[in-house]
């Protein structure tokens, strides 16, 4: 048969064989690629405000459990997220709870602990032998935490850190911060006058935005000065305050001292899983705050400029490819009505090779956090204590020597000398 105008002709049978071959190849690749490890970092659910402003008519008594507590709306949000994670990882995680597969850690705050518990209720509804009470569709699953004084992974900003505080002072002198303050000076003064706050700055005004947001979401009346335009401007300034914490200037340096700490731990966990050193662990969940997600995403340079909403979730997935290599994919769920959207680490593709992922993040990983923060480490503290002890001993011996010399001088015989007033006739 003659060739067709320079194009290769394929018979219908050949075309069918080619298509089937491509389908089988795609199926083989899909089967060969395996999800090996997952880390999720989520914000707590809906809560009451953490405080009220002085002139607020809705004080702590307006909230059933007081300030800063998870509401029933927040509980439902995290139960829904748990159900979404259950559906997403069906076939990867066991259908019923297996303590070897999952580890959950939370900050030591009521709302994050309760969010983790509600999330697990949605992720692992009890079935079969795990039902301990037929009237309760829930089972206890451990949530680990550390006291606030020891928390150095999930609550940001991590303090004390003198170097970070110095960077914040530099940020306050930056043109963007100075101009933002100048442009909003009159607005901030208006807010201060209406709320009764003595200090209302770019760094503190977020609390007013938060209070009014919580009150509006729970159908509490807002003051007349809190117009739509005012609320929108407060949200803008609130988002700016997150950038102040972890960006604006020296973002990489701030990341090394803040969000990079969490990034480093996530990388260690993924590396352990890639080397089969995770002892069967497949899934780690961190129950945290908006500042945690802000610090994390600014360290990764994928922050969208907006405060992370309630029950939002940053996902890291580690895949083993058919070649035996590993890739990392990131997703962010910030809308419960839509699937998580993909995030791409700058400098890589969405499905980023693990080694490349690690290499790109190396600049934001502190090798010695305490040293970079300019804190005295345990070794330096020991040296100071030893130095003080040695100095004290030397001082003691010098005093002892001085007293000995003085005592010897007094004990020696005194030669003839005239002492006025003794033995003389004086009035």
UniProtKB/TrEMBL annotation:
Top-rank taxon of the source lineage equals Eukaryota
Among SUPFAM superfamilies, the record links this protein to: Phosphoglycerate mutase-like
GO CC, alphabetical:
lysosomal lumen; lysosomal membrane
Reaction(s) this enzyme catalyzes, per UniProt: a phosphate monoester + H2O = an alcohol + phosphate
For this protein, the parts annotated as crossing the membrane are 384-407
What is one GO biological process annotated to this record?
Answer: lysosome organization
Report the locations given in the UniProt record. Lysosome lumen; Lysosome membrane
Instruction: Indicate the family of this protein.
Output: Belongs to the histidine acid phosphatase family.
Protein name, UniProt field: Lysosomal acid phosphatase
